[in-house]
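ENTRY TYPE: paired fold submission
RECORD: A
CONTENT: sequence, then structure tokens
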Amino acid sequence: MSLTPRIAIDAMGGDVGVRMMLAGAAMARHRHDGLRFILVGDEVQIKAALENHPNLRAASDIIHTDGVVTGEDKPSQALRKAKSTSMGLAIDAVKRGDAGGAVSAGNTGALMAMAKLALRTMPGIDRPALAALLPTLGDNDVVMLDLGANTDCDANNLVQFAVMGAAYARTAMGLEKPRVALLNIGTEELKGTDEIRDAAALLRETKGLPMQFAGFIEGDKLSRGDVDVIVHDGFSGNIALKTIEGTARFVTDLLRRAFTSSVRSKIGFLISRPATELLRHHLDPNNHNGAVFLGLNGVVLKSHGSADAKGVANCVHLCAELIEKDITRQVTEDLANFRDGAAA
């Protein structure tokens, strides 16, 4: 079933705010001219920014609010003012059915709390998980989850993440039977915590789901492309994600320093520029911007706060794709099939 994508944008989120969020939405609409938007935030600022994007203006409605969730707001503080903030009203548009999904570049903890309270978790899901696509050396990206929504997870949580991650991989990457692995300190069956070993035992017994359990994977193999979905608790996942991002910046900065250290190095840079441009493109986080909260009765995506217009556009485009392919229905069906198989 194909759904018409209408996306609620928290226009006030992100490091830059209205200007960057709308530039990204406009870029996404040029790539996908069927997109329509609900722009939530300060109407004066939104209308001023829309002057530069007539194509977006023609496809957008505006919901005005002065309320903004700041980066310093605790989730409990954000919840108390949810109905008067751009983030809360964007999520509410999904709850009411006015939008198929919401995108925000604001406070991650607040976004998680608001989305969970407004949309609730799917049947069979104890906790939603934050999932993102990351580049690999293989033919496909890799789905990693959870990336910080849940610091402590039991075996059932990890199994639920695996089922949701596989459904997401099929939707976002078109894979028929994604290869799923659990992040661990070794590949042997006796390695890891009780929760990880118990989750592995449950996944090995899983029958009839469109996924392949590939066992354990270690941290140095995350970007090899050997698997399609990597499952972990939010504590480990957030550390792994930040390490990957930091390493990418380290490599980029190291190359920049090396190529500007002498005249000979600068000449070498000119000769190798096609290769370095390919590397820069591969390491650019804007090309993989957009993390989705899986397990909710609705589509909500988190854009990186520092994303540029291209990054926001990629996040919006991913949101549209998940709406069109009805990711919520796919996850619901997989969870029901998993429960039936476990009962049998």
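RECORD: B
CONTENT: sequence, then structure tokens
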Amino acid sequence: MEFALLFSGEYDSANVFLSIHAGTGGVDAQDWAEMLERMYLRFAEKNNWTTEILERNLGNEAGIKNTLIKIVGRYAYGYLKSEAGVHRLVRISPFDAESLRQTSFALVEVLPELENDNKIEIKPEEIELEFHRSGGPGGQNVNKVSSAVRIKHLPTGIVVSCQSERSQSQNREAAMSLLKAKLLVLRLAEQDSRTALIKGDVQKAEWGRQIRSYVLQPYQMVKDHRTEYETSDTAGVLAGGIDKFIEAYLKTQV
């Protein structure tokens, strides 16, 4: 009964598009974005979910500028919707010659994958397609064939892209699915405040807007500012142990 109550949302059983964007903090923020990417991939692995990186842009010196991951698993969105928002890291910077303490930010966006959802209709004349070569390291096809897909929805200006090592048609299908998810959020925002249940408030990855803080120096603590749940096991959390944070958040939504 408790499970049914916690996961009673309309899209809770759906798969997930999870994106991470480096925010304020320069190279440290890009490194932090990559740390978060690893955390969510390990959390998915612990739950026996399958993951696929649809797009990934490397940082100039280290880390990543942004990444888009598709996570397929039972109630993936129901679990991961709690992660949407700004995540803050405090540590001694490994990129600072003077070893000064650095605060970095990254934005996490979580969207449900819509399957056979007739609520969102996209007409061919409403989109602008662009095909290009995938960036970054790759295999036989990547960087040689224009398999990466970029779609712009003309009425709203929303832009999505996908550049995994798959075919152009598969990339287009994934990008269209992501576009539908973003259009759903936009529609709900226009209708009523239900958008907060899907994606959370639109936020900038900067000081004062974080939902969770990860402090590695001068002490060890991860604290969620919405639920006040905290732990000193920072290594365990960054290794994918975020179950208690998710549970605490879901209980506040009942």
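NOTES ON RECORD B: DSSP finds seven helices and eleven strands in the chain. The two ends are 12 Å apart (CA to CA).
STATUS: closed
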